[in-house]
Amino acid sequence: MIEGIIWAIFAGLMLGTYALPEKFTKDFAFENTWGLMFILNMFLIPIISASLLIKGFGGVLSGIPTDILLKMAIASVMWGIGAMMWGKAINYIGLSLGFSIFIGTVILVGSLLPFLVDGLPPNNVLIYILVGIAIVLVGVIANGKAGIIRESDEKSDSTSEKVSMTKGIIIAVVGGLLATGFSFANAVGRPYLHEACQAAGNPEWVTSVAVMFVIYVCGGLVVTPYFIVKLTQQGLWKNFKTEHLGKNTLLILAMAALNFAASATFAYAAFKLGKVGNTVGYAIFNTISVAVAIIGGLLTSEWAKASGKARLYLYIGLACMILGVVIIALGNSQGVV
Q: Tens of pLDDT along 48-85?
């Protein structure tokens, strides 16, 4: 159990930092940065990783039962749309607030959704899980409040900014709801893919790469066409001719690699945590990512002009999230979960 918690924390650290490189790209619009990120993230990296790391990859993939593949595909498409909306939300309302609201929604729904697949755990276990998640959510809500106050401190009271903020929050919430498809796809697909990978002579951790391949490629099938259309409609293809293309591409490649590695590491953490991996692991994974993203926002001066009240909410939120994770981890370490 402890090993699973450590891997979940590590995955959260990677997810929390994956969007930071976007702050340093130049001459790219949202569609340029995130369009290229999703192409690399959902096709290039998964295909290369699966081809190089999975022994007998073709047989493993072709043997997936139709019903499992269909469930994974539908849930993955939902996740892909949600991930795209997450990027849009970050573009509207910033890294800290975008993470807080999006991940808060993901934790609320995604941590409990796998119970539909795996069934409810014993009551004492469920109590620990729900208490930990509840405290985590208090922290996420507090961080969201901090972000809203910060935006009020920094921006003038204009109608256009209010519309942008409202739109960003709505996008983050809807995106978070859709992104819970990731947890469901992982819960549905891992059992078969684990057996298939083991039968082909792969080590246990390789299963996570196989699961992520299916999720990412299916998600990319709907996200990529969206960005192609938007780049064409808005005439943004010309932005790729910038002198900063090389640097931008490296930064975006880092985003894609961190995102994919975070997801694959979480899938392995969920496996190590056992039956509650998709609930406890999901809460830890997403909570750590929010904490790291908020710290990243502090380090990149997102909160430079924020009031003391905004920072107070921020610190309260971080404390609550850490407390929630400790309670979940304590339950695991004592053999409660």
A: 999 999 999 999 999 999 999 999 999 999 999 998 99
CA distance 251 to 313: 31
Distance separating alpha carbons of residues 22 and 5, to the nearest angstrom: 29
One-letter amino acid identity for 272?
Answer: K
Cβ contacts of 45-50, under 8 Å, gap ≥ 24: 45/216, 45/256, 45/257, 45/260, 46/212, 46/213, 46/216, 46/217, 46/260, 47/213, 47/217, 49/209, 49/212, 49/213, 49/260, 49/264, 50/209, 50/210, 50/213
Contacts of 186 (CB under 8 A, 6+ apart): 211, 215, 267, 270, 278
**Tens digit of pLDDT for each residue in 239-274?**
999 999 999 999 999 999 999 999 888 888 877 887
What DSSP string describes 233-257? HTT-GGGGGSTTHHHHHHHHHHHHH
Residue 12 structure tokens: 């959260």
Residue of 132, 129, 110 lying closest to 324 (CA atoms): 132
Question: Any idea what DSSP says for residue 126?
Answer: H
Is the distance from CB of 76 to CB of 218 less than 8 angstroms? Answer: yes
Whether the Cβ atoms of residue 120 and residue 212 lie closer than 8 Å to each other: no
pLDDT (tens digit per residue) in 82-137 = 989 988 888 777 777 787 788 778 777 766 665 665 677 677 777 877 888 888 88
